[in-house]
Amino acid sequence: MDLAKYVFEKGSKHVKIFTVETKTCKKTEKSYTTPAKPLLVASPVEEGEYPVVVFLHGYLLYNSFYSQLLHHVASHGFVVIAPQQLYVVSGPDTTEEIKSAASLLDWLVHNLASSLPPNVQPNLAKLSIAGHSRGGKVAFALALSKVVSSPLKISALIGIDPVDGMDMGNQTPPPILTYTPNSLKLDMPVLVVGSGLGELKRNALFPPAAPKGVSHEQFFKECCAPACYFVAKDYGHLDMLDDETKGFRGNLTYCIAKNGKERKSMRVFVGGIMVAFLKAYLENEREFLMAIKDEPGVAPIELSTFSFLD
């Protein structure tokens, strides 16, 4: 097996992708019987116990736009949970999104196992939280206990082109970045993935999707060890989405941010590096991440930056 390439290929697990819908119901003494937000779930179908990844989508996007990415990660032996619409369209404040994410983690404790395929068990002792764009900010906020503390211990954190605001000094509340190196005291390993084109405008009508000063570079500067950082040189802020995204919001993803030539390579890279990172820190299988560290050219895209804080 070529260890450095393995994580960028489809894993050995067969995957079922399904939704868990929400409905109006009274809160019991323990939890909601259905989630407060609808979920998109990607799960292996083979019998076993699997680590859980909560994936928070970007602003104004649908969780279904990430189905190919979620499938890739799940095929390597992870249960991936992607809630829909953690935000409100109006206003920059992410407080309610953070509370919503915490509420989902509480729901997982009592209800996730019964929602999965037969003989599939979630291992919530190996829980990671990942987020793209504004969802990346929310993931960091929850890991840092901003607004509310997580009801579950978070074992790993992933920010995929995380964004904390529109530009330097204009962060969305509650702010995450402090502009002090190594100031984010996170008791967990962190992966930050950035896009080389995210800080560039696509045209005069739209600002950069991931402005310099409030995006991936600054997030990594403020992380403490252990942390990993990869930047895809010629790909944009939305290039990890599905090959085809339909509808009004789906069509917007092709015109509001500067994009690379195609999405597949970036998506495969993001999925693969997530798998390598999670296997290293949740499963103690560090050989895949170390192989990429030793041979970064094996990635399906060109990296402008790769860095490790050990």
Instruction: Provide the domain count.
Output: 1
Please tally the β strands and state the result: 11
Low-confidence stretches: 24-32
CATH architectural type: 3-Layer(aba) Sandwich
CATH level 1 class label? Alpha Beta
| Total number of helices | 8
Q: Could you report the average pLDDT, rounded to the nearest whole number? A: 92
Largest sheet, in brief, is:
9 strands, mixed
CATH superfamily: Alpha/Beta hydrolase fold, catalytic domain
The H-and-E topology, N to C, reads as HEEEHEHEHEEEEHEHHHE
DSSP strand (E) fraction? 15-25%
- Using the coordinates shown, work out and report the CATH topology: Rossmann fold
Indicate the structural class.
alpha/beta
Strand adjacency order, main sheet = 1-2-4-3-5-6-9-10-11
Distance between the termini: 26 Å
Provide the descriptors you would attach to this structure in a database record.
8 helices; about 300 residues; globular; nine-stranded mixed β-sheet; two-stranded antiparallel sheet; alpha/beta; Rossmann fold
